[in-house]
Write a structure and sequence with these properties.
homodimer, about 140 residues, mainly alpha, two-stranded antiparallel sheet, 2 strands, DNA-binding
Chain lengths: ~140, ~140
DNA sequence: GTAAACTAAGACTTAAAGAGTCGTATTTAA
DNA sequence: TTAAATACGACTCTTTAAGTCTTAGTTTAC
């Protein structure tokens, strides 16, 4: 109930893999899928999403594939999560993800206040953690 | 994708509510459900689970209900989560929840190492946060 | 001793999200 | 022209969370 999705997991594995290759190396989805035993189709979609958001560059055709489009030092784990899952995917408590006005229990419930701190902590850690540090 | 479940949310709201009442006050599920606009049936189940694990004491019959069975200072948010969702509900990455031997990608994938740090951080925060601090 | 107000517990249904699959189109090098 | 790659949408399957329903048991007040 409190896990990163497979898609994020696969995305991180893929990006990390690319970061470990010499800069500019073209890596194929198939290669990654085989090496880490990931379902090709699903990984392919994740790659497409990462490419669409310019985190990786795509090359079509016979010797196509992907390369990292950013420095591993600048690429944050939080970036990868946000791209794959959409913004504010990491939102500990639902109440907080909507505007306070929309929350029926907002006036009486202050439970979120301490949890928002935890939220902040998680966000900070994810923002500070670069792909480089995973290599 | 990275949220506390409603059940945990309801559980925290309930426990916090009880912590705010004078010690020994018997609180009914109905009362909490109405006050915070929570679905009675679902909340009732959460209460039962909390009672079964001795976090709260249950009293049946006409003037029955529940009271906190522990000090709010000693009751950790992590306790509530673990009781309601089962142990290791907060497990950032699946790979880590199983034994390394069972993980096919274990030998090649080291992605989890940095994420385990995050896991530790989250656990620490949840372990340190008491219900008392939510009141 | 019976009715009312509770908890207890399990079975069931529904809804949503995640994971994975399939088919087809497009691009490009050889 | 063929093979190997990306691109993309539609689809199914599975799981889990959320919520509902039903029945049983307990206690107090009258």
């Amino acid at each position: 109930m409190f896990q990163l999705s497979k898609r994020v997991e696969y995305g991180l594995i893929a990006v990390r893999h690319m970061a470990m290759c010499p800069a500019g190396t073209i890596v194929t989805t198939k290669e990654i899928a085989e090496k880490y035993h990931l379902p090709y189709e699903l990984l392919a979609k994740v790659m497409q999403k990462l490419a669409r958001e310019k985190f990786i560059s795509s090359y079509q055709g016979v010797h196509g594939g992907y390369t990292l489009a950013r420095n591993a030092e600048e690429l944050k784990v939080s970036d990868v999560i946000n791209v794959i899952e959409g913004k504010s995917a990491v939102t500990i408590i639902q109440c907080e993800s909507e505007s306070p006005q929309n929350c029926i229990i907002h006036t009486t419930c202050t439970i979120k206040n301490p949890l928002v701190k935890l939220q902040g902590t998680i966000n900070r850690v994810l923002n500070d953690l670069t792909i480089m540090e995973m290599v």
